[in-house]
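Shift notes (night). Ran WD repeat-containing protein 47-like isoform X3 while the centrifuge was going.
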Amino acid sequence: MSSVFDLVGNRIFSDHQSGMMTSAKAKHKKEFKARDDIFDEENPTTFLKVTELKDEQPIRAAAFHPGGEIYATGSNSRVLCICAMPSLTGLSASHAATPATEIHRIEKIHKSSVSCLAWSPCGNLIATGSSDKTIKLMRFTTSTHNFAGTPMELRIHDGAVRDLTFMQDSSNQTSLLISGGAGDCKIYICDCDTGTPIHALSGHTGHVLSLCTWGGAMFASGSHDRSVRFWDLRAGTFILKISPHGPAGGGSPASPACTVTVDESGRLLASGHEDGSCMLYDVRGARVIQTFQPHAAELRSAHLCPRSFYLLTGSFDKTIALTNLHEQGDLEHPLSTVTVGTHKDKVIQTCWHPTEMAFLSTSVDKRASL
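Came back to this:
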């Protein structure tokens, strides 16, 4: 089940610049503006559950299309579902969540659960990874919101695929797919046109649990071996390792790194760990800024908002939290964190909308909420 939440009534963000984003390269994005009233203890802005998608089994994965008009979910029931993003205007505090509007539904896309999914930066490709050790790569027509051609099946992993992400190769503008998981713990880079693996990167000694990319050549990975590693495709190996016994700037929490996220500028990394802690890391300064504890159980999902004002986290403690990163003007100071959503069971995935102050969450409770 995935959920999407938005600000209630008049507090819905209305000061965005005009223009809808139709691709990740759109020139006219809405301005994602920081709002301190979310953290106002006397009169806080709350989030409202807008729609809800139900499944027969836990919903594991969710991601917005870069254009923001649709989103995808994947579940243990082997279903890939594409849903329409609802209108967020005119909502009131009395709004009751309505069923999500399904556009497409692909049954039995894998032989086992859909564990992860991702859209390409341009929105013309979608990939799903599974516990059946395979990846399905599909072309998607943004104008018609429909799939095109036959899915490509990649059999490159010898264990469950735990995460995947796309990278736009800055040298020739082709799309690359980065994936990692269990088995040999390698990270594979595939050419999306041919499905051919072009790199198999070694380094992690535990399952690769999370991946994120930025800058056209850089990506980060989090692993069950408790390390976060930075990779540069031009180097062919990891260029920095943060671990409990890490660099002089300080190490990561002594707990598996379940999720990693980097802001658009490539300056700030946040990692979520199995013990419920979160690490903020200065990428350019190569130092740990601070570690704090936003959750009481495994921090399974972390995402920086499009302008990095807030950090959204989801946990096995059944809560979704928002941490204010701009309030103090210095990330070394104590940070304000508030609970902005809950599920009836463990939260597995959270993700921000590309332009709206809204997010998706998925859970073991078989729901995805917006």
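The two ends are 10 Å apart (CA to CA). Residues 5-29 have pLDDT under 50 and may be disordered.
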